[in-house]
Each structure stands twice: as structure tokens, then as C-alpha cells.
Specification:
The chain is built from 15 helices and 11 strands. The protein has helices at residues 25-38, 51-58, 60-83, 135-148, 199-203, 247-253, 259-293, 300-317, 322-331, 336-364, 370-383, 388-397, 401-417, 434-437, 444-454, and strands at residues 2-9, 12-19, 87-95, 104-112, 125-128, 151-154, 164-173, 176-189, 211-217, 227-241, 422-425. Strands 6, 7, 8, 9 and 10 form a 5-stranded antiparallel beta sheet that branches. It has a 4-stranded antiparallel beta sheet with strand order 1-2-4-3, with helices on both faces. A hairpin with a 2-residue loop joins β7 (164-173) and β8. The longest helix has 35 residues, at 259-293.
Length: 460
């Protein structure tokens, strides 16, 4: 087989491939065996009919077309490997006219990874906020802990922010009931903003048994984007009673004997969280600066595929109905033109980021261990509330294990270059990045601990 490469653009090539006819002999044998099992010819058992009879029944040209169509993917892969083409995305294959006994020729246009010139990382510098731990942050942690151990008590008064209510909702559009926007016995925390717009404002001051009508815009269903009159009825109002902050509470809520010990532990937790936030900010700032300073040519077909992937889920959920999509966009306060433009911007940034980080990973020869891949899979499984084995099974079925591997490699590659970049906080003080990013590129464990929190954001 002969293969040549023609560079069309910095991100696209054309492979010209010629396959000698004799190289297809094994493919012909396989096709004849398959057809022999399918075709019944009198006088011959299944699978035993001679090739000549099968050819006479099916037609030599039809058999040739089947052989070539089945062989093309493998021959394309051979050509990619032979020419060391860094292909990404799906190829567009153009097959020349087939003639029995003659070489098979085809071309394959495909997007490729562009050549990217990476900077001297020691010339880069980023600035982040300093790590500051104040009493308010510790108190917030303490209040959250109190809330976990709080109890709900019914009250005979109007609802206020922070109360928990049981409510019934009934919606109407132009006087007609909207069943999908109605419900009974719904539990809701007043002021949380977790349900529909206008609900929390309507609930404040309502006691059990009282009703109020308010207007809101529906965001889903057949009436998405339309104004609806919603009637809310309060069934019960409960307030949360929080435990006193004393040694008894510390013993109940933690492994500590005193409040002082508990507060010190919470302060350490806040410190770790703040440091991790700073580490993530460093990583994001480094990536942002690289994207601004490094030229990354964009493969258009890959970008279009990303756009389609972003929009497909919503369009499919709306039944590919243009009218429903228009209502959805109106409810989001946007237009189709703006939606398409935003999708393109996101896709271009995503593709640019992937290509840039892949180039860094190649330059740094970034390796990913099985343990690191497993850690990331477990982390993502937890995010989706799934068991690791179930998540791995779904990844395998969707052929996405490679995508997770690439994600880990990109995050690790980015973490690996932070040591070479000057990092200061807004006060001008130098920031020690070694805790989360390591002192050298082999500090895999430290890098992974910082990456896992936000690894999924690397490709966005």
C-alpha cells in the first residue's frame, strides 16, 4: 500500500492511498465465507458453496464493493500510522471508481493536530488573590454544622426566609390549567430560590392554610416562555432550631471534646479549602494566559462537531421542534443567533484548550499511571452519584475511557509547568506552588490532588 500526505491547511490534510488489488485477497476470502453462510445454493451445504457460484449469484462488482467498503477503515488507519498523521475527528473519504483486478485508490481528508509553538514558561507570570482566613469563614462552617444537626419545629406564624414549608402549586395560562406545572405536598426552603421565580416572595408572610397568586414565566414544558398565574397554598410552616454552640454540641457533631478544638479544626479545614481555591486559580490563570499568548489554529470540522454536541442534547429533548426551541430560547432571554454564537465561542475555546494542553503534554512527555486514571474515574463517579464499577461500565460502552485518560493527562501536563512560572499574590508576595503542583514534573501525587477537584473543567 502506498500513502502520501497533502497539507491543505495548518489543521487539515488529504491522504492519497493506493491499495494493490492483491492486498485484498484476505478480505475477499472473508467476504466469500460470510456470503456462503448467508446464500443457499442447491446441492451445497451452508458455507460450502464455491466462490464462483457465489460470484455468479451476487455479482462480482457487488462483491468487490462490499470487500472495499469493509476494508477501507482498516486501510485508512494503516495510512494514518504509515504517514504519522496526527488525525483528529472523522475523515471524509472519496473512493475512486472500482475496477476488478486493479488497485483501489481513495483520498481521505481529515483534521489534524496543528503545530503549536509553546513559550518559555519561565517568562510567564500570574497573579492571584492571597490566602486569607477570617473568623467569618470559620463561623460560616460552624453555622453549616449547626444546620446539619438542627431540628424542624412547626410554628403558628407567617413564613420567613429560612423556614421550611409544605406547599401546593397550581398554574394556569390564559385561564387553562397547566398540569405539568402543578403539584401537591412539595417541601421548600423559603428564600433558597430553588424553584420558580416569584415563589419565595409570595411565600413570605403566608401562614398555614393561606393562599396567594403570583405571576411567573414558565421555563419548561409545552408553555415554556409563557406567563402563568400560579396559586401557592401553604400547608405547614416549620422553622429550624439550631443547637447551642457548646462543648456538648462539639461532642455530638465531631470527634472533639470542646468547642475550641472544633473551631480550630474548622479553621484548618477553611485554610485547606482556601489553599485549594488558590491552586485552582493559579491553574486557571496559567491556562488563560497561555490561551491568550499562544497561537492555536482551529480545525473547523472538530469545532463544528463540538457545537453539534453542545446543542444536540437540548434540541433532542425538545423533540427537534423549532417552535419549542424558540420558546426555550425566549425563556432563556436569548435568540437562536446569540445561542449559536455562544455555542461557537465555547466550542472554539474548548478545542483550543485541548490542543494546547495536548501539545504541552507531548512536550513534557506527560505520563498517566493506572492509579491516576482510576482516581479520576472514582472522582467522576462520585460527582454523578454512581458506583465506580457502574460508571466504568458506562464509560466503556460509550468508548469514553480514552477521553478520561486524555483529561487526566491534560490536567497533569498543565500542573507540571506551574513550577516554571512566576506566581505572586496581589500583595506582591511570592506564592509557594509546591504543595499542590510539586517541585518537579514527577510530583504526580501532589499534582493529581489539585487536578481532581477541577479536572472536568480543563476541557471547557
Amino acid at each position: 500500500m502506498k500513502s502520501t500526505v497533502e497539507q491543505l491547511t495548518p489543521t487539515r490534510v488529504k491522504l492519497n492511498v493506493e491499495v494493490p488489488f492483491e492486498e485484498l485477497s484476505a478480505d475477499f476470502d472473508r467476504t466469500y465465507r460470510s456470503l456462503a453462510q448467508q446464500i443457499r445454493i442447491p446441492g451445497f451445504r451452508p458455507g460450502k458453496a464455491p466462490a464462483k457460484l457465489i460470484e455468479a449469484r451476487v455479482g462480482r462488482d457487488s462483491i468487490l464493493a462490499q470487500v472495499v467498503n469493509e476494508a477501507i477503515p482498516g486501510k485508512y488507519s494503516e495510512a494514518v500510522a504509515e504517514t504519522e498523521t496526527k488525525a483528529i475527528g472523522q475523515p471524509e473519504i472519496d473512493l475512486s471508481e472500482l475496477k476488478y483486478g486493479e488497485s483501489v485508490t481513495f483520498t481521505a481528508e481529515v483534521d489534524v493536530r496543528p503545530e503549536i509553538t509553546l513559550p518559555d514558561y519561565s517568562t510567564l507570570s500570574v497573579e492571584v488573590d492571597p490566602v486569607e482566613i477570617d473568623d467569618a469563614a470559620v463561623d460560616e462552617q460552624l453555622e453549616g454544622l449547626r444546620a446539619r444537626f438542627g431540628t424542624l419545629q412547626g410554628v403558628e406564624r407567617g413564613a420567613a426566609d429560612g423556614d421550611f414549608v409544605s406547599i401546593d402549586l397550581a398554574a394556569e395560562v390564559d385561564g387553562e390549567p397547566v398540569d405539568e406545572a402543578s403539584t401537591e405536598g412539595l417541601s421548600h426552603e423559603v428564600g433558597s430560590g430553588q424553584l420558580i421565580d416569584g415563589l419565595d416572595e409570595a411565600l413570605v408572610g403566608l401562614a398555614a392554610g393561606e393562599t396567594k397568586v403570583f405571576t411567573t414565566k414558565l421555563v419548561a414544558g409545552d408553555h415554556a416562555g409563557e406567563e402563568a398565574a400560579v396559586t401557592v397554598t401553604v400547608n405547614s410552616v416549620k422553622e429550624r432550631e439550631l443547637p447551642e454552640v457548646d462543648d456538648e454540641f462539639a461532642q455530638m457533631a465531631s470527634e472533639f471534646d470542646t468547642v475550641d478544638e472544633l473551631k480550630e479544626s474548622l479553621r484548618e479545614r477553611v485554610a485547606t479549602s482556601k489553599k485549594l481555591e488558590q491552586a485552582n486559580a493559579i491553574r486557571d490563570k496559567v491556562l488563560e494566559q497561555l490561551l491568550e499568548t499562544v497561537e492555536v489554529p482551529l480545525p473547523e470540522k472538530v469545532v463544528e462537531s463540538q457545537i453539534e454536541g453542545q446543542q444536540h442534547q437540548i434540541i433532542h429533548a425538545l423533540g427537534h421542534d423549532d417552535e419549542q426551541l424558540a420558546k426555550f430560547l425566549e425563556a432563556q432571554g436569548t435568540t437562536r443567533e446569540k445561542w449559536d454564537a455562544e455555542a461557537r465561542d465555547e466550542a472554539e475555546k474548548s478545542v483550543r484548550t485541548e490542543l494546547l494542553l495536548d501539545a504541552i503534554a507531548e512536550q513534557q512527555d506527560t505520563q498517566v499511571s493506572q492509579d491516576e486514571l482510576t482516581q479520576q474515574i472514582i472522582f467522576q463517579a462520585q460527582r454523578y452519584g454512581m458506583q465506580p464499577q457502574e460508571f466504568i461500565q458506562q464509560l466503556s460502552q460509550a468508548n469514553q475511557v480514552g477521553a478520561v485518560f486524555a483529561e487526566v493527562r491534560r490536567g497533569k501536563a498543565l500542573a507540571g509547568i506551574v513550577k516554571d512560572i512566576t506566581v505572586t499574590d496581589t500583595t506582591g508576595a511570592a506564592v509557594d506552588t509546591s504543595e499542590f503542583f510539586g517541585d518537579d514534573s514527577d510530583s504526580a501525587d501532589d499534582e493529581t490532588s489539585a487536578d481532581n477537584e477541577t479536572a472536568a473543567d480543563t476541557d471547557n
